[in-house]
Design a protein that fits this description.
Helix content: over 70%
Oligomer: single chain
Number of helices: 13
Structural class: mainly alpha
Number of domains: 2
Shape: globular
Number of strands: 0
CATH class of the largest domain: Mainly Alpha
CATH superfamily of the largest domain: MetI-like
CATH architecture of the largest domain: Orthogonal Bundle
């Protein structure tokens, strides 16, 4: 590639980055703009910036409780998906049992079923169990992920079986091989699965909207929906809520993005 083409590529990539970052920058700017007026259109210039929108946000909603709910649910879902996904991935990658291919194919087929199809039967099931409107109802449906199993199974397949054989000769069973050999070697894939699970749980809206009624169990997406209903014309308050929702997950992703890239490359996904 010539030097001129490199400069052209740099300009194109920079322009794309600016276009993608503009909505986030506009959200932050609007949240600190007095009265959050949008009459003049999108702008990144703020005169007399203020944090009144954030004060109104935390005064009108129990934001600390809502943020704590979101963090708790996201952490629990992420931990459960890592445990179930890694164990199932190890079983599909290393254990031999009748019908393994059919079971794995059926498990992956669930990826084609949209959540909207499952919402009603899931709600009826949790209501019959008297578990609706509880934190467990937010966590249990996300305890396992078909994509997480697939991703971790691919990562475990890439681990040489010679390690397993050497450990078996030394007297190790499947549990020790899984815990002491396989898991340390698939850390990038585990990080990728964890980040994807955390982001999915953090941004989940439809299922919490259906199953949760009590304000004390609300997560951030539900709180922001309530906020938008209360402050439809006060865009500074709405944008302040968006910033509060975006910043934590953005920090998590920026901190672990190298693990995502490594995990995808190690599992052979393109």
């Amino acid at each position: 590639m010539t030097r001129a083409w490199r400069w052209v590529l740099l300009v194109v990539v920079t322009a794309g980055a600016v276009v993608m970052m503009f909505p986030f920058a506009w959200t932050v700017v609007t949240s600190i703009t007095p009265d959050g007026s949008l009459a003049d259109g999108p702008t990144l210039i703020v005169q007399d910036p203020t944090l009144d929108a954030y004060r109104t946000l935390f005064a009108s909603l129990p934001m600390l409780r809502i943020i704590a709910n979101s963090i708790g649910v996201a952490v629990a879902c992420t931990a459960l998906q890592l445990v179930t996904g890694s164990m199932a991935g190890y079983a599909f990658a290393r254990l031999e049992f009748r019908g393994k291919g059919v079971v794995f194919a059926g498990y992956l087929a669930t990826l084609m079923i949209p959540l909207q199809v499952l919402v009603v039967p899931l709600f009826i099931q949790f209501k019959d169990w008297n578990l609706h409107d509880t934190m467990l109802a937010l966590i249990a449906p996300a305890a396992a992920s078909a994509f997480g199993v697939f991703l971790l199974r691919q990562a475990i397949e890439a681990v040489p079986r010679e390690f397993d054989e050497a450990a078996t000769i030394d007297g190790a069973g499947h549990l020790r091989i899984f815990a002491l050999i396989v898991l340390p070697l698939i850390r990038p894939a585990l990080a990728t699965t964890g980040i994807l699970a955390f982001m999915a749980s953090w941004n989940s809206f439809l299922w919490p909207l259906v199953v949760i009624r009590s304000p004390e169990f609300q997560t951030l997406p539900l709180g922001l929906a309530t906020l938008q209903g209360q402050f439809t014309t006060q865009w500074d308050v709405v944008m302040a809520g968006s910033v509060v929702s975006i910043v934590p997950i953005a920090l998590v992703y920026l901190f672990a993005q190298r693990h995502v890239i490594a995990g995808v490359s190690h599992t052979g996904l393109k």
